[in-house]
UniProtKB/TrEMBL annotation:
Residues 7-150 form the Glycosyltransferase 2-like domain. Keywords: Transferase. It comes from Halanaerobium saccharolyticum. It comes from the Bacteria. Coiled coil: none annotated. One of its GO terms (molecular function) is hexosyltransferase activity. Pfam families: Glycos_transf_2. Gene3D superfamilies: Spore Coat Polysaccharide Biosynthesis Protein SpsA, Chain A. Signal peptide: none annotated. This is GT2 family glycosyltransferase. The lineage of its organism: Bacteria, Bacillati, Bacillota, Clostridia, Halanaerobiales. InterPro entries: Glyco_trans_2-like, Nucleotide-diphossugar_trans.
């Protein structure tokens, strides 16, 4: 069977940012469908839609743009994209992220019907950035003391080179999986504001059904720098509100899956302790950030 890939990208009020990154998706090999789910944006997407259609004129890629009547959240958008997709494999995209030139082909070469896989992910780059600056930012993020997966916080650090592909409990959002996996899995739509843990939840559902989740550092994708991203998506609220809803959504995630995670990974800790560990991490991280900004501001 020929391997075909549907790329699904939820978006909200970021037409110009989407236009900035969309070529990195269109120019990938093996794409059969490009599905954009607009979550009730009030900004116009006419220009980016026309741009995409012009770029696809000589390509065998079925383009579907669907707009929700109102803002429904990213979980709903992902489920809607799954209902539309016909291809063998799904790759999730984001409207503020671009792919390395071989992202799909590398993942596709390593995947099978019982596997989901993601590559490395780096932050703070731009599609037009020169090679020297790009290399510097990436090397700064390859912090050797970090582990690929932190079982204490259930957080991944997918910016490390590994000698071989490794199995992980879950990856980041830009993951490829067989379409058949989603016949019994849906994105949980109860995560609020920033949607934190939304992707993790779906991948834990995969894990419960015997699917292997793999991390490879053989290919990468890149989040745009915040200063070039339009205000929109899941991060329109204040920094404080974002942090509060990380804590709330982590609580929801653990309430849904803590027993499984405890048993599967021999954590030997209570539901409340897992929540406390994450809360302590968020508080400590933000205190460090405040102190760092204070020192910089005051010399």
């Amino acid at each position: 069977m020929r391997k075909t890939v549907a790329v699904i990208i939820p978006t909200f009020n970021r037409p110009n940012t989407l236009k900035k990154v969309i070529d990195s998706y269109i120019n990938q090999k093996y794409i059969n469908e490009l599905i954009i789910i607009d979550d009730g944006s009030y900004k116009k997407y006419d220009e980016v839609n026309n741009y995409i259609r012009s770029k696809l004129k000589d390509k065998e890629i079925n383009y579907i743009y669907k707009k929700n009547n109102k803002n429904m959240g990213a979980g709903f958008c992902r489920n809607e994209g799954l209902r539309i997709a016909k291809s063998n494999f799904i790759l999730w995209g984001e409207d503020d992220l671009f792919l390395g030139h071989d992202y799909i082909s590398v993942l596709l070469s390593k995947i099978d019907k019982k596997t989901a896989i993601c590559g490395s992910i780096y932050y703070g780059l731009d599609v037009d950035m020169n090679f020297t600056d790009e290399k510097k930012i990436i090397s700064q993020q390859k912090i050797k003391k970090n582990r690929v997966f932190n079982y204490k916080l259930f957080e991944g650090y997918y910016r490390l080179d590994t000698k071989k592909d490794i199995r992980i409990p879950f990856g980041h959002a830009i993951i490829m999986a067989p379409k058949t996996i989603y016949e019994k899995i849906e994105y949980y739509e109860g995560y609020m504001v920033n949607g934190y843990r939304e992707e993790s939840d779906a991948q834990i559902q995969m894990l419960k059904r015997g699917i292997k989740i793999i991390y490879t550092s053989d290919t990468s994708c890149y989040h745009l720098s915040g200063d070039v991203i339009e205000k929109g998506g899941q991060h329109t609220s204040s920094f404080f509100k974002q942090e509060i809803f990380k804590i709330i959504n982590n609580y929801i995630f653990l309430k849904r899956h803590h027993q499984f995670l405890n048993d599967e990974f021999s954590l030997n800790r209570s539901f409340m302790k897992s929540n406390w560990l994450y809360l302590k991490y968020i508080i400590k991280k933000n205190i460090k950030g405040i102190l760092k900004r204070f020192v910089i501001k005051n010399g």
